[in-house]
């Protein structure tokens, strides 16, 4: 009986650890509040101070039609994926020196993962996947 109890406790602890490290879209949406002053996302999103972020992952820097990018951003030749975004959002000016983005960054890896999960919900047309 003790072996079953230990195994059960181990399984529960493993499940709890996995849930704690999983991406949380709701938390990512709350983190999105730091971005929304300059960016839009979703159906009908428009460029503001920064470009709209629909379909961000998989697109190249400087690719949003109608947005006036810095030459640094246009010339960065980066394709956005989770790793590149995580590095960028921690310190935008370090990743792309000369970017127009004025943002101190998000340093917390969990918050970045949650924000990434929120952003990844939206396809290039702003529809939730």
- How many strands? 0
Name the overall outline. globular
Termini Cα gap: 46 Å
Question: What is the overall number of helices?
Answer: 6
**CATH homology group:** Cytochrome c-like domain
Rg of Cα set: 18 Å
Query: What's the mean pLDDT score?
Result: 89
What does the main sheet amount to? none
Question: Brief overview, please?
Answer:
The chain is an all-alpha fold. Helices cover 43% and strands 0% of the residues.
Features:
mainly alpha; Cytochrome Bc1 Complex, Chain D, domain 2
Task: Give a written overview of the molecule.
By secondary structure, the protein is mostly helical. The protein has a single domain, classed as Cytochrome c-like domain (Cytochrome Bc1 Complex, Chain D, domain 2). The chain is built from six helices and no strands. It has helices spanning 2-21, 25-32, 71-74, 82-90, 92-95, 109-119. Helix 2 crosses helix 6 (109-119) and helix 4 packs across helix 6. The longest helix has 20 residues, at 2-21. It starts with a helix and ends in a 10-residue tail after the last helix. Mean pLDDT is 89; it is low at 14-20.
Write the topology of this structure.
Elements: H1 2-21, H2 25-32, H3 71-74, H4 82-90, H5 92-95, H6 109-119
Helix pairs in contact: 2-6, 4-6
């Amino acid at each position: 009986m003790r072996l079953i109890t230990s195994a059960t406790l181990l399984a529960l602890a493993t499940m709890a650890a996995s849930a704690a490290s999983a991406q949380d879209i709701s938390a990512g949406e709350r983190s999105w509040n730091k971005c929304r002053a300059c960016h839009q996302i979703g159906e009908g999103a428009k460029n503001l101070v920064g470009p709209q972020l629909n379909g961000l992952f998989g697109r190249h820097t400087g690719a949003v039609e109608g947005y006036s990018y810095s030459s640094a951003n246009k010339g960065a030749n980066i394709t956005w994926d989770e790793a590149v975004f995580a590095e960028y959002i921690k310190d935008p000016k370090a990743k792309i020196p000369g970017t127009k983005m004025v943002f101190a960054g998000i340093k917390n890896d969990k918050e970045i993962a949650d924000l990434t999960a929120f952003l990844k919900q939206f396809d290039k047309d702003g529809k939730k996947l």
